[in-house]
Structure formats: C-alpha cells, structure tokens
Amino acid sequence: MKQSVHDAELVVEAATEDREIKLNLFKQLSHLCGDNAILASNTSSISITQIAAVTNNPERVIGMHFMNPVPLMKLVEVIRGKETTDAVTDTIMKLSRQLNKIPVEVNDSPGFVANRILMPMINEAILRCMKMYRGWMRSTR
Question: What b/e sequence results for 34-61 when a residue is b if at least 16 CB atoms lie within 10 Å of its CB, and e otherwise?
Fold first, then answer.
C-alpha cells in the first residue's frame, strides 16, 4: 500500500463498514500519504470527525459517500468533519460534479442524509404491510 498512496492527492476508502477497520486504515494512510493528500471515506454511518481524529491532518479528511449502485446512482453525500476545511470540501464537491454525480454537502451526524431519510421510509413501509396483513387475516377468519 505504501507505494500506491505515497504521491496520491486523493485516497477514497471503501472498506467494510466497521469502525475499527476504518480507524486503523486511516491511521496508516495518514502516515503513508503526503501532508497535502485528501483522505475520503465512503462510510455510510461512521463519524468523519472520529475518523479524522486518528490522522495527522484531520482538516484534510472528508466523507464521500457514493450511493449504490454507484454506476447508476447520481447522489454523493459529501460529509464535512469538524475540522474539514472549506478548500477540501470545495475540491470534493467539484470532483463529484466532474464524475457526473450530484454532490450534497451534509453534516457529520448519524446516518448522514440518505440513511436518515431511508430508515423512516422503511419503517413506514413495514407498518403498512403489517396493517394490510392484519386486515387480510381478519377477512379470512
């Protein structure tokens, strides 16, 4: 990995959604990459501020959460950590547009935007199914 990231200007991590794995990876990347490298995480729920805290340059850490399936979905959540600079955020917003994506800058809060919208929708769908099932059960008695 050392040779791969030494001169990188941007590293986008897409490891499994496990806090310890991501923290260890970012700690390593922080030592292997140059001071000007932007370190981005594709996390869907882990705090960018927590990830940034294990690095040497927390102001250069940002979230870049691509929606699945990536080739079809246009949305990218761009998540600022507490110390992420405006310049880093602007760079990632611009890059996302160059990738023909629609970037949305979001706060570093649990679930970011997509999951905060998705979870209530899923809950509502389950409640509707339960009501329909109960109605069906009553009608078959």
Answer: eeebbbbbbbbebbbbbbbbbbebbbbb
